[in-house]
Design goal:
This protein has 13 helices and 8 strands. By secondary structure, it is an alpha/beta fold. It has one domain: P-loop containing nucleotide triphosphate hydrolases (Rossmann fold, 3-Layer(aba) Sandwich).
Length: 334
């Protein structure tokens, strides 16, 4: 009897040839082929991600889409507007409690719905008792056990904190979990600094062969000064929507009222945002240097024209300044 043994030498040669091929870094321009679009939204803390996402997800659902909103911030405040200010039990907290009781976590323990939107919070460790990024990783592990990959949604929106340069918060970019990223920013240096960091992370993982791109920016509390729009133009991403700094929006948000509905005057704005989010392709951004970012603002505001004056050893010693005897041994004759 003869065995059909594969030619391992040829197999080895083929693998070596593939390893020497240059990976393509072209950005796909066609819409994602997977039915479910998984979109990660990043932005500075307090910039309005939760406000934007709660209203965006509600409008998507009102327009007939199946939407899952997942809060990936240890503050667990993504769903507060959607649920009228009521805190949503987090996956990590619920899992810990159930495990101590010898019970299994069920979907109904952690996922809730309103206006057609399904929403949940990953949560995080207690203050000072763990790593928020590691908590995010653990939360996604629990989601997989709950059957995340078998769920049927048109859109899964992930709300991520953008301030921290951390592997846990960068999970969707590093592991190609999302097809595209959206940044929320305003016309201020700190929020654009965070947006630029997100673009840098996307660019870094693209160089390593990743596929996630930045679909665009949402300008929140837009006061018309134009810095955020200028940033988006320079890094090469579109502005998906500009949400004005309007007192009506501020009051409704503070009172946990949804404005992303056709029943309000803001319905058209969030409908347009929903369409742009759905259609925008993932792009490869061109992040700015720190000086380039400062250049978008008036130098008097940022201190961009400040000249650095180097300190000296004498400055550092202060009142102890003086000639310091050397301990070096000098030999005149060798």
């Amino acid at each position: 009897m003869t065995l059909d043994i594969p030619n391992l030498k040829d197999f080895d040669t083929r693998l070596r040839d593939e390893a020497h091929e240059e990976p393509t870094l072209e950005v796909p321009s066609a819409p994602p082929t997977k039915k479910t679009q998984i979109i990660a939204i990043y932005g500075k803390g307090g910039i309005g991600k939760s406000f934007t996402l709660a209203n965006l997800s509600h409008m998507m659902a009102e327009n007939g889409k199946r939407v899952l909103l997942i809060g990936c911030d240890p503050k667990s405040d993504t769903t507060s507007l959607l649920f009228g200010g009521k805190a949503c039990p987090t996956i990590i907290e619920t899992s810990t409690r159930k495990k101590l009781a010898g019970e299994e976590v069920k979907i109904g323990d952690v996922c809730f719905k309103r206006g057609g939107v399904f929403a949940m919070e990953l949560g995080g460790p207690e203050v000072g008792r763990g790593c928020g990024g590691r908590g995010i990783i653990h939360g996604f592990e629990l989601l997989e056990k709950l059957g995340f990959h078998d769920w049927d949604f048109d859109y899964v929106l992930l709300d991520f904190l953008g301030d921290v340069v951390c592997g846990g918060f960068g999970l969707p970019i590093a592991r190609d979990m999302a097809q595209k990223v959206i940044v929320v920013a305003s016309n201020d240096l700190q929020s654009l600094y965070v947006a630029n960091n997100v673009c840098s992370a996307v660019e870094y993982f693209r160089k390593l062969g990743g596929n996630v791109g930045v679909a665009g920016m949402v300008i929140n509390k837009d006061d018309g000064t134009g810095e955020a729009a200028a940033f988006a133009k320079v890094v090469g991403i579109p502005v998906l929507a500009s949400i004005p700094a309007d007192d009506d929006l501020r009051r409704k948000s503070a009172n946990y009222q949804i404005v992303g509905t056709h029943a309000t005057q803001w319905g058209g704005l969030f409908t347009e945002l929903a369409e742009n989010v759905a259609d925008a392709p993932p792009l490869r951004p061109k992040p700015l240097t720190q000086d380039g970012l400062l250049g978008l603002f008036d130098a008097e505001t940022t201190g961009a024209d400040f000249v650095l004056v180097p300190a000296t050893d004498t400055d550092m010693r202060g009142k102890f300044a003086g000639v310091v005897k050397s301990l070096e041994v000098v030999y005149d004759n060798v």
